[in-house]
């Protein structure tokens, strides 16, 4: 069927001719099927699913068709977008199902790095004034509340808050200097 005949069917379908619309969808399904088979090495079921998705998109987006434009570029653009969506879904599915065999090395935890970072933190904490170090150890490392840390150290609640703030700021500066 020629471009002009397809366009005429589409125009008649847009004007409410149900028979023209049915003929258009039959012709379009053949064109889309051939288009997808040339571009995809998929199972016939997947191609048929894409044909149906494309026909559904044609139905839902038919109001976007410009009457003065050719029909087949519009049709193939929709089919192309559906094909790209399918390829994206397939790639995501394959990525999710990739075996981890090649990744075993980075999955194996190396505790030496964790130990080294704990030593670095201990060294940096030791460099802080006692009130800053104790406030951080109690509240940030041991998870105590500010009130509990104040009771243990004999400092006021506001002094604990200020010491934590100033100590964390000092630690951040030390960390930047090391990097």
From TrEMBL:
This is Sigma-70 family RNA polymerase sigma factor. It comes from the Bacteria. InterPro entries: RNA_pol_sigma-70-like, RNA_pol_sigma-70_dom, RNA_pol_sigma70_r2, RNA_pol_sigma70_r4_t2, RNA_pol_sigma_r2, RNA_pol_sigma_r3/r4-like, WH-like_DNA-bd_sf. Residues 121-171 form the RNA polymerase sigma factor 70 region 4 type domain. Keywords: DNA-binding, Sigma factor, Transcription, Transcription regulation. Pfam families: Sigma70_r2, Sigma70_r4_2. Belongs to the sigma-70 factor family. ECF subfamily. The keyword Transcription regulation applies. Residues 26-91 form the RNA polymerase sigma-70 region domain. It comes from Methylophilus luteus.
